[in-house]
Specification:
- The protein is 35% helix and 22% strand.
- It contains 18 helices and 21 strands.
- The strands form 5 sheets. The protein has a 6-stranded mixed sheet. Strands 16-21-20-19-17-18 form a 6-stranded mixed sheet, sandwiched between helices. A 5-stranded parallel sheet has the order 3-2-1-4-5, sandwiched between helices.
- Helix 14 links the parallel strand 12 and strand 13.
- The longest helix is centred in the middle third of the chain and has 27 residues.
- The N and C termini lie far apart (64 Å).
Length: 509
Amino acid sequence: MDQWAILSVSDKTGLAELARGFLAQGIKLLASGGTYRFLQNEGIDVTPLEDLTGFSEILSGRVKTLHPRIYAGILSRETTDDAKDRESIGAPKIAAVVVNLYPFETRWQEGASRDQLIEEIDIGGVSLIRAAAKNYVRTLVLVDPRQYPEALRVPVAEMSITDRLSRAQEAFSHIAHYDAVIAGALSQWTDPPVRPVTQEVFTITGQRWGELRYGENPHQSAAFYAVAGQTGFQNATLYQGKGLSYNNLADADTAWRLASSLPAPNAVAIKHQTPSGVGLGTTLEEAYIKAYESDPVSIFGGIVAVKGTVDEHLAQRLISLFLEVVIAEDYTRDALAVLAKKKNLRVLAMPFELPAYSEELRTIQGGFLVQTRDVVTLPFDILKHAGGPKTDLASWKTDLMLAWTTVAFVKSNAIVVVKDGMTVGIGGGHTNRIDAARQALEQAKEKAAGAVLASDAFFPFGDVMKEAAKYRIGLVIQPGGSLRDNESIEQANLYQIPLYFTGERHFRH
């Protein structure tokens, strides 16, 4: 009996070559709508699907491939009973199904309306792919033009079960991604939007954005997958430099999020996903100088994010030391010319605007954890005076905001000391809070006098306040809530250090 291939694609890339390859193997072609017309125009011998089904498209193309003759031809097994059933309704033996789906994801990213997107939800194509993938032992399924050259390397009839199984797995991944993208889009149409962390089933899917040389260490493999409907590093402009690595992206994300959380102009230096220096200024260059001077040693080999446009003068400063990545909102032409002198420096441009809502995932053995991302705010009207003298918080506003925002991005236990719009001491990643405080205060040294000290979580004892007093800290801000808060309050009263509670902690593990 004749063998056939069904072709129904939105992307015509490589289709003519594939069709001719099938014909050379003695496989006849069935095609729907636009695919049929395309192949005809290419001078390729093809039969319209309606010749098999006996009816044309209906509902403006919503129904065109849903027919027993098609699915019997795809799903029939190599058994006498299946062959009898297939032949009884005049269904051909379909050896291959080539389908790629309506471009829902692309149209969503382009900003198509809801009504337009509804029409991009593929029904028949998904059904054809599922049927062929289910019957992979006999029916080859192809869902991506990149698969065509490999599929033609060996005649369809001689293709191994292993290769057929691989194509089936790719097919189910293809439609799983497609459906997850649609679910994600529809979840945003409700009022309020449905958030994945509230659902019994959490789905996430992404397209591989590009090759990463390796993971956190050279022996680990890694990749970055861009999530549909979200903007981020997949949308950044890479002006120069090597491709971004796993560590580059992880560090750059921390830098971008912290810079996005602070008012412009600001500059953030990141090393190993934790801030080494942060500065605010009246100009971007001033902010960068503060971030650099916060810790001139740790910034070496790090990542810098600046919220604003880099000019020639700032670019000269940036190339004066070794940096892995620079991220900014924009660059002047002269700045790009200066940065080009450091060929290996990765120079990125992207907007600094935090999304209204996003999730954070972390894998654990057997599954993964999901939480909403931490959003850092400091509502001054709810700060609770806990100990020491009351003070006019308005005069501390900039440093309080900078300290409280920065400490949320430092690995816990975390202490940050800020003075005059710049971090002067950062201690983080310690197993106890007093060591984090000592690290931050020792880094600050004499600059700690009159500075703000912020802690990401409460003080379990009064020891941090004692240490702060040694360095003449000007004001302390921390969440409060310890059973021993009274010890810290007593020290604040003893040493006359204003102590304020936020009532909110910002662990970052």
